[in-house]
Design brief:
3 domains, alpha+beta, single chain, 14 helices, D-Maltodextrin-Binding Protein, domain 2, 497 residues, 21 strands
């Protein structure tokens, strides 16, 4: 997933790292919790330093904080900012900052730290995946507790973006070492990171609201193998597994020891296509690939039935959604005709690069079988997450890949120069700029509909499904998120009954 990992072997799961106290684990005291994740944060724990969603799953709202906070229902509330005012043209935001806040190294949080964080995020050498947003931002310090943000590009989702991991407020002196020695304003500090195994956070007593934090320790264990995920839950070694592999869920539904939470999402699982690789630069070939795929079969095979078909890079329930699944419907005969029209006379050989998540590996098997029926021979290439991030995402060295894009508002990726899809469209850029700069909601709604249709008609990818995430947890654990507009594990909200 983008927004991220070393696989544990099943044998290793039973062991507790010697450097971690036994009380960190599920059988321990009720002021501790063990959560599991499929993927380890890569390359570090700084959400501004990598695209992997697993970074924020550990660090956001726990170690690092943002001006605004995104809630489970997708709403935005104050966090490091106490309040804000927005100009009528949606280009000027004035934030009043919370007073008396310190970073975990004792340095004060203030408007200067906000300016430093946002200037750094938009700097020329920044590797922040939302660099474009911050590069178009001018930050003015009014006083220690007042900051004004001027945006060159109108963005109706700006307050939401400021609650994401890319917008964390960092302490200037420690910023460059946040990947391995994170320093934030949040309620938890990094205690220990056993690479390939676990990350342990402990409560920071200097937190401004420390009295309300119930859990003193949280350990994140990394368990990629679906069978090992089940074993860890059943053994009580893990208290909660947010976004567990869906194939594991059935045996927990009728078990009184567990709660099963099925969550909505804004994620898009896609068969991403390298739009500059021949013959994938021909829209007819991309349309053929889309027409060869039965989305419902993929949902069963990759998501075990937890998902809804999508036809573009947008999901049901989102603002301005239109149903585009009929633009490139499942039609093997049409797929064969399109390949013939594009001059593909012999079996087309392509490689599908698959990162570790089970939805990708399982989905690859299903899609390869479907492509074979229309004359496309798809070789499956399994890679580890670091390889995917460097080779596929970084160097664009791939034909096809299966990935979930989990950010809610990421249509802007289609206009990003050099993004790993290699999609370039002046028509898209024009539509997207109009959308971003239209203050009237009705205009934005129409434009975002037009954008969805264009992306579908260009068959930028074979769009597969909107996943539903499933959390399995101890029945006595309270405060789990119901839905996941972003991937976050907010430890401060958790407690034991």
């Amino acid at each position: 997933m983008l927004n991220r990992r070393t696989i544990l072997t099943t044998a290793a799961l039973a062991s507790v790292p010697l450097s971690l106290p036994q009380t960190a684990f599920a059988q321990g005291r009720k002021d501790a919790i063990v959560l599991a994740m499929a993927l380890e944060p890569t390359p570090g724990l700084d959400p501004t330093g990598g695209a992997a969603s697993s970074i924020s799953e550990v660090a956001l709202y726990n170690i690092f904080e943002t001006l605004t906070k995104i809630n489970s229902d997708g709403s935005v509330s104050p966090l490091l900012a106490e309040s804000w005012e927005i100009s009528p043209d949606l280009r000027t935001y004035t934030f009043k900052l919370r007073k008396g806040v310190k970073f975990q190294n004792g340095e004060p949080f203030n408007a200067q730290a906000v300016k430093f964080s946002y200037d750094r995020a938009g700097a020329e050498k920044s590797i922040n995946k939302d660099k474009r947003t911050f590069a178009n931002l001018t930050t003015h310090v009014i006083d220690d507790h007042t900051v004004v943000l001027l945006t060159k590009e109108l963005d109706p989702d700006f307050l939401f973006l400021l609650g994401q991991g890319t917008a964390i407020i960092v302490e200037p002196k420690s910023a460059e070492s946040n990947g391995t020695k994170p320093v934030g304003t949040g309620p938890y500090k990094l205690e220990n990171w056993v690479k390939g195994s676990s990350v342990t956070l402990t409560k920071w007593d200097g937190y401004r609201a420390a009295a309300g934090i119930r859990l003193k320790r949280a350990t994140f264990r990394f368990i990629a193998d679906p069978a090992a995920q089940v074993a860890a839950l059943l053994a009580g070694d893990v208290d909660a597994f947010p976004r567990v592999t869906p194939r594991s869920v059935a045996q927990f539904k009728d078990n009184a020891k567990f709660q099963v939470v099925v969550s909505g999402s804004r994620a898009k699982t896609i068969l991403a296509i390298n739009n500059k690789k021949k013959p994938l630069d021909d829209v007819r070939v991309r349309r053929a690939i889309a027409a060869a795929i039965d989305r419902k079969a993929v949902i069963q095979g990759a998501g075990d039935g937890y998902g809804a078909p999508i036809g573009s890079h947008y999901v049901p329930g989102a603002f301005g959604y239109v149903d585009t699944t009929g633009i490139n419907p499942f039609n093997p005969d049409k797929a064969k005709a399109l390949l013939k029209e594009a001059g593909i006379t012999s079996p087309l050989e392509l490689t599908i690069t698959l990162p570790p998540p089970p939805y990708a590996r399982q989905g690859g098997e299903v899609i390869a079988a479907q492509l074979a029926k229309v004359g496309i021979v798809a070789k499956l290439q399994n890679v580890e997450w670091a390889q995917w991030l460097s080779g596929t995402y970084g160097n664009k060295n791939y034909d096809l890949t299966i990935i979930s894009h989990v950010e809610p508002f990421d249509l802007g990726n289609f206009s990003r120069p050099g993004y790993y899809w290699n999609y370039e469209s002046p028509k898209f850029n024009d539509l997207y700029n109009k959308y971003k700069n239209s203050p009237r909601e009705a205009d934005r709604k129409k434009l975002v509909g037009d954008i969805q249709k264009l992306v579908a008609e260009d068959s930028v990818h074979a769009f597969l499904y909107q996943p539903q995430w499933v959390t399995v947890a101890n029945k006595n654990l309270k405060g789990l998120w119901k839905d996941f507009p972003v991937f976050v594990n907010d430890i401060s909200a958790l407690s034991w009954s």
